Amino acid sequence: MPLTLGQLAAVLDLSCTQPDIVITTITCDSRQVQPGTLFVAYPGVSVDGHRYIAQAVAAGASAVVGEQDLQLAVPYLRIEDGRRALGYLAAAWEGFPSRRMGVIGITGTDGKTTTSNILHSILRAAGQNAGLITTVSAQIGDVALDTGLHTTTPDAPDLQRYLRQMADAGSAWVVLETTSHGLSQWRVAGADYDIAVYTNVTHEHLDEHGDYAGYLAAKGRLLELLSEAQPKPGAPRCAVLNADDRSYPWLCKYAVPRSLGYGINHGDVRATDIVYEPDGMRFTTRWDQHRLVEIETPLVGRFNIYNSLAAITVAFLLEISDEAIQQGMVMVPGIPGRMERIERGQAFTAIVDFAHTPYALEAALQTVRGLTDGRVIVVFGSAGLRDVGKRRMMGEIAGHLADLAIVTAEDPRTEDLASILTTSAEACRTAGGTALIEPDRYRAMQLALRHARPEDVVIICGKGHEQSMCFGDVEYPWDDRVALRHALDVYLGQASDPPSRVLPTYQD
Q1: What per-residue confidence (pLDDT) applies to 1?
Q2: How far apart, in whole angstroms, are the C-alpha atoms of residue 460 and residue 353?
Q3: Is pLDDT of 203 > 70?
Q4: Is 50 exceeded by the pLDDT of residue 386?
Q5: Which residue of 65, 126, 332, 336 is surrounded by the most CB atoms within 10 Å?
Q6: Which pTM was predicted?
Q7: In the 8-state DSSP scheme, what is residue 336?
């Protein structure tokens, strides 16, 4: 439903000279401008939208929102932060859908998608009409929608559209995976959070946030949004924090309506009597003296104890029954690219995992070490134009925890790939490990398979569910799971090279 410029200006606490102008669409992309558009300009990562204001006006924009002092032929709304303004404008455009349902935001460095899926599974087991938005997909009822090629929160207009569709479908709750980029770039502005969940805050995205303190501050914005949101009838307002994580003392300083901690060693909600098995885990969840629930799950690894505890703590807050929690934990679906086994009849275990941070790589390697008496062979890389410090850290972790590391490409972008690979490989060797370098990711998989023996584990880390890899400025179609299946088929004599999709590094 179209809104007037006056109505939209009021959302930003502004007035305007021509409030009766009817706005038919809102965009920050000048290529999408048509008559009736409200164009929002702000400095982007590589392009400043203010450069395209003249083009937007020429294309028929009825009004412009921007951060600079300008005089235009159309109404101009001057604001301090264009990204934040876009978030609230998009929410207003969709009728502030987050105010019609409960919103659970899940953030952290690692485990966000898994925790979101666990909680969604519990909510569904409890008979709740619950929506789910992750970096993998959006789930509206029984319909799954792809949310993009790479891993971040959808842009504000897309996010608010998903939320409106969920609210229109009668969702009581939405589980919203909330990335640090989604927070720092205000993609989630206009989303009224009721519960804020933190998995952990480890070493990642320092290229974006400068240092760990800056990264913590970006993550802390979710708690600020929680504090600012208006209470909703029947919805608890609470922060759920990992009491075993080093971020806990800092996050506890935020003034929020309520907070609960979870953990194995500390916290209000704790896991005890943990039993790790090759095909899952069993543990007891205790909430002080309130609740004691026996849990079984097909998930593996100590890190998934924490992910499970985060989701179960929210379930306790929502007064979901023990039976629904247990059923949801048993029925949690396999999550694409998260400890996903690829089985083609080989005599060893092959796994694809999204581990792309030092903490996640360490957790993944520790987990697969417990799955076998054989060797662990890891294929991993580190992204270009991103946090350079983790390249050496990940190499050191591979050197300590893997029997063989094969270092390969992972979104090198415009950086020199050889330099990236050398940094990680040298760190691995310095740590006492064995490292090989193979720039092509498919060839690296093949190399790992040639080294594998019966009972070994080959784990491909870093890309998980992602559907592309960036070389230069180009995103090339790529899926680790598809590539590994093909490499295994070639290894077993069931297919021949080359695969259907190759990267620029591939050589026949």
Answers
A1: 65
A2: 6
A3: no
A4: yes
A5: 65
A6: 0.87
A7: T
Using alpha carbons, select from 364, 484, 324, 457 the residue that is nearest to residue 114.
364
Same domain, 179 and 317: yes
Cβ atoms of 335 and 117 within 8 Å: the answer is: yes
| Residue type, position 327, single letter | Q
On average, the pLDDT of the chain sits at 93
Domain stop point among 55, 70, 92: 92
Residue 118 CA, distance from chain mean position = 14
Which residue, 139, 507, 48, is CA-closest to 497?
507
For residues 288-310, average pLDDT: 92
What is the C-alpha separation between 63 and 72, in angstroms, rounded? 9
Beta strands in 298-413 (DSSP E): 340-341, 349-353, 376-380, 404-407
CA dihedral 379, 455, 353, 279 (to 10 degrees): -170
More confident residue, 146 or 128: 128
Same domain, 472 and 487: yes
Same domain, 178 and 33: no
Q: Is residue 485 in a domain? A: yes
Phi-psi region of 61 (alpha: psi -120 to 50; beta: other; left: phi over 0): beta
Cis ω for the linkage preceding 97 (within 30 of 0): no
Q: What CATH number has the domain bearing residue 234?
A: 3.40.1190.10
